[in-house]
Amino acid sequence: MEASTDLIARARTSRTAFGELYWHYSPKVYRYFLAHTGNHHDSEDLTAQTFEQVLRTIDRYEDRGNRFSTWLLTVASHILLGVFHLSWDGPWLSRLRRPSHPQLQLK
Q1: In the chain, where the domains are located
Q2: Class for domain 5-98, per CATH?
Q3: String of b and e for 21-30 (b: at least 16 CB within 10 Å)?
Q4: How far is residue 16's CA from residue 4's CA, in Å, rounded to a whole number?
Q5: Which run of H or of E encompasses 62?
Q6: pTM of the prediction?
Q7: 9, 30, 33, 40: least CB-packed within 10 angstroms?
Q8: What is the pLDDT of residues 27-38, one digit of tens each?
Q9: Confidence of residue 62 (pLDDT cuts 50, 70, 90)
Q10: Helix, strand, coil shares of the chain as percentages rounded to 5?
Q11: Distance separating alpha carbons of residues 66 and 1, to the nearest angstrom
Q12: Rounded CA separation 13/92 (Å)
């Protein structure tokens, strides 16, 4: 279930409302990272980074008919891509998991 537009609007200025968004969406973001890293610690760190970024950029979110979770997971995917880029030859690359969906497999 998506958060209300009122909650999203309040989260721009209220720590309490932002906390509600965090508790509502953090499990979904965590599972996204866990599916890609296979590592609980890294997934927790990346989830925190995602919400730090969302806190800085929530004013840029505009409801254009897309769900807030779509925007949020876009932020998460940019965080993940940044990690890939920064550690292309480092320890992260060896820990990444291939997506399980056949259409998402890297060739």
Answers
A1: 5-98
A2: mainly alpha
A3: bbebbbeebb
A4: 15
A5: none
A6: 0.77
A7: 40
A8: 999 999 999 888
A9: confident
A10: 75, 0, 25
A11: 13
A12: 35
